[in-house]
Design brief:
Layout: H1 3-9, E1 13-18, H2 27-37, E2 45-47, H3 56-70, E3 74-79, H4 85-97, E4 102-106, H5 128-138, E5 143-148, H6 159-171, E6 176-181, H7 185-197, E7 204-208, H8 214-223, H9 230-265, E8 270-274, H10 280-286
Parallel strand pairs: 1-2, 1-8, 2-3, 3-4, 4-5, 5-6, 6-7, 7-8
Helix pairs in contact: 5-6, 9-10
Length: 290
């Protein structure tokens, strides 16, 4: 079933994001994690695609296995960067054969070798809205999700410009939005209101990533455009100093639980958990929340 239809009748909900393990030797453990997370009765599960479709075949196989073994409603990610129309249509045809009715349309990360002059790499789908438009016009059986950036995309010249990009994605055919991770719920609710003021009324699902360790905190600070409140940083550092990894884990669970609680009470349609292919923390964060 299409995710927008599911959202209308299942509020609030939790959904999950997985990434394909690089080595097939890791797949049995991955599917055990997915089965454990089935306890949450997720509305849907998304599966990442990889830059330039680097894990395309793995994504398709894992999508099929998740449907078969877990019964999840599946939404694969699809990136347009460096992809031609035949490759995109081939992937969309493959997910149709699996009975999948949803896709998350993304521009994708530019290759590390990109110099700004390699226009031929982006001739077909230079932006997410181009991919959205193509799917909407040529694969109408699919509901289309897109990524939202409550703190603006790192390449956006301004917050207003980023909101305009989102407006164009929706005008091109996007049916719902899943946000990138963030740590201050006020940012999410402000983002929703600003988009509504521009006439964007599609569901906007907040993405939540529990902080699992000091290492994950450092990764977020280095790789993501998400601001982490100073109080949270101090709590994590103090917990690590006084109690090590277990103490940091407890802080991460508590903070994410409160974040989810506030989102649901504030009217968010649900929450999308970035699982990092781990079950324990997600189960603790969502225990008793829905």
């Amino acid at each position: 079933m299409q995710i927008p239809q599911l959202i209308k009748t299942h509020k609030p909900f939790v959904s999950l994001e997985f990434f394909p393990p690089k080595n097939k030797e890791e797949w049995p453990g991955f599917f055990e994690v997915a089965k454990k997370l089935g306890q949450l009765n997720p509305l849907f599960a998304s599966v990442t695609y990889g830059a330039g479709g680097s894990t395309q075949s793995n994504t398709l196989e894992i999508c099929g296995q998740l449907i078969k073994t877990c019964g999840f409603e599946i939404m694969p990610h699809l990136t347009g960067v460096t992809a031609d129309q035949d490759k995109i249509d081939g992937f969309l045809g493959a997910i149709k054969e699996l009975g999948i009715e949803n896709v998350l349309a993304l521009r994708g990360d530019r290759p590390t070798c990109f110099t700004g002059s390699d226009k031929e790499l982006f001739a077909n789908f230079p932006y997410a809205e181009d991919l959205v438009r193509h799917i909407h016009q040529n694969h109408p059986q699919l509901a289309i999700g897109v990524a939202g950036f409550p703190e603006a995309h790192s390449e956006a010249p301004s917050f207003a410009a980023d909101l305009e990009v989102m407006q164009r994605k929706v005008n091109s055919g996007a049916d719902f939005v899943i946000t990138q991770l963030y740590f201050d719920n006020r940012i999410y609710f402000d983002y929703v209101q600003r988009l509504k003021a521009r006439g964007v009324e599609v569901p906007i699902v907040p993405g939540v990533l529990p902080i699992r360790s000091l290492g994950s905190l450092r990764f977020i600070l280095e790789m993501c455009n998400a601001r982490i409140p100073g109080k949270l940083v101090n709590k994590v550092l103090k917990a690590h100093e006084e109690g090590g990894a277990k103490a940091v884990y407890k802080v991460g669970v508590a903070y994410a639980r409160q974040q989810v609680k506030e989102l649901i009470e504030g009217g968010a349609p649900g929450v999308h958990l970035y699982t990092l292919n781990k079950a324990d923390m997600c189960l603790e964060v969502m225990d008793g929340q829905l």
